[in-house]
Write a structure and sequence with these properties.
Blueprint lengths: L3 H13 L19 H25 L7 H15 L11 H25 L4 H17 L2 H22 L8 H46 L1 H17 L5 H31 L10 E4 H11 L5 H6 E5 L4 E4 L1 H21 L9 E8 L2 E8 L6 H6 L16 H11 L3 E6 L5 E8 L2
Parallel strand pairs: 2-4
Antiparallel strand pairs: 1-3, 4-5, 5-7, 6-7
Length: 432
């Protein structure tokens, strides 16, 4: 029977995720279309552009207010984008997302609004703020941009009233005109941001749905292979000796291959639901979900099965979907066994160690393998959709799917690895 505290936690979880339908849940994207070139272009533009505009507005086309130190501060924030390689990784870590969001907020809505107020809302800074709004919505998620623009303008106004220089007062007619122009820019930014967000989700949904359909269609030839396998096995007793034994082995091998392929298809179809995970939550035993998933896993050999060792230091319960967390265990187990198979040494018992434990209000499921490992570049990208270290058969959705499932349960997943030193995947979850 769940404790009152566990029931309260379940209620909070359902309030956070009220939707249990398959409708796509919009994702917050701190940096739209992140890439190393894009982030460097933004950082370089800020680093070089602000000193240049300081010279323009001070010496060539003087404006009522300019501040060299403020310009250098904003240019320094642009330089910091060049020094944060993690900013171009998708999806970014939480810390990177917070840092990049703060940089965008300071250098766009806050800075431009401050300069607008200090220059008395003149034509130059009216146009600049309008351009800023469109740029802001082009760089980050429309929801972050909307909240950021409103809060940046408000903070800049408060700071201007408290610490700002003397500036010409905005007349009623000028204030009304500027409000109309900025409202139009803001509305346009929201509309473009919404349409761009919907388009990205529709494209991803179409791609993943197509993959799921293709995987499902593979079941037809597999059913034929299953019938052939049964026919071969039924034929085996009629052929005595070595020939009959060989037919029996071939039939068993076909059955095993069909079972393995059906298992992979189930994984592909589940992974294809990457962006629309069901939000129904149950109280799950970590040990039970891990052991059940491993019992159903289609190992390719007895040696592979023996390589997996489970140690339950302390079982714990958490809220989530048992089916989805079984898929998480499947994905992590499959990746670890592939890494072990790629290593030079033969697989040994315990080469994949799965440990379950709890400390205080946090539970842990840790997958430790002695496989080939990965370098720092791969570690930063393995949770990115469609990125795969297995160029032959990998679809690049397994770990992205794992991350989404764990995050939906208010948990975290991280990896520690180095070349030829294996990998450690750690899942942390709030104890229910």
């Amino acid at each position: 029977m769940p404790s009152p505290r566990a029931l309260l936690q379940l209620a909070r979880h359902r309030l956070r995720h009220p939707s249990s339908s398959g409708v796509l849940q919009p994702l917050l994207e701190p940096v739209l279309h992140p890439s190393r070139w894009r982030i460097r272009a933004i950082g370089a533009s800020m680093f070089l552009g602000h000193p240049l505009f300081y010279l323009v507005w001070t010496h060539w086309l003087p404006q009522p207010y300019e501040n060299l130190w403020l310009r250098l501060l904003v240019a320094g924030l642009g330089l910091s984008l060049l020094a944060i390689p993690a900013a171009s990784v998708a999806p970014p870590s939480r810390a990177t997302a917070v840092v990049v969001t703060a940089i965008f907020w300071l250098t766009l809505p806050w800075f431009f609004s401050w300069m607008y107020f200090c220059n008395g809302g003149n034509a130059v800074w009216l146009a600049s703020v309008g351009a800023m709004l469109l740029i802001y919505y082009h760089l980050t998620d429309w929801r972050l941009a909307t909240v950021g623009a409103a809060s940046g303008m408000a903070v800049a106004w408060v700071m201007f009233e408290a610490f700002g220089p003397q500036a010409p007062a905005l007349g009623l007619e000028l204030a009304a005109t500027n409000t109309v122009v900025l409202s139009f820019c803001w509305y346009t930014g929201i509309v473009l941001g919404l349409s761009s967000s919907n388009l990205r989700r529709e494209q991803l949904n179409f791609t993943l749905g197509t993959m799921g359909i293709m995987a499902h269609e593979l079941r037809t030839p597999l059913a034929t292979m299953q019938l052939i396998a049964e026919a071969v096995r039924n034929e085996a007793p009629q052929h005595g000796g070595e020939s009959g034994e060989r037919l029996q082995q071939l039939g068993q091998r076909l059955n095993h291959l069909v079972r393995n392929m059906n298992h992979q298809i189930d994984m592909q179809i589940t992974n294809a639901r990457l962006t629309r995970l069901p939000r129904n939550a149950e109280r799950i035993s970590a040990a039970e979900v891990v052991q059940a998933a491993l019992a159903d896993y289609p190992y390719r050999s007895t040696r592979e099965r023996q390589a997996v060792v489970v140690r339950v230091h302390a079982d714990f319960h958490f809220f989530g979907s048992p089916a989805l967390f079984s898929q998480v265990v499947d994905n992590l187990t499959k990746n670890a066994l592939r890494s072990l198979a790629a290593a030079s040494s033969a697989i040994q018992p315990g080469d994949l160690l799965i440990e379950i434990g709890a400390l205080g209000q946090r539970g842990r499921i840790v997958f430790t393998d002695n496989g080939v490992g990965m370098d720092a570049v791969l570690r930063k990208r393995i949770f990115q959709p469609f990125f795969s270290t297995d160029r032959g058969t990998g679809h690049g959705l397994g770990l992205a799917f794992c991350q989404r499932v764990v995050h939906a349960a208010q948990g975290t997943i991280r990896v520690k690895s180095a070349p030829h030193q294996g990998a450690v995947f750690t899942i942390e979850l709030p104890v229910a």
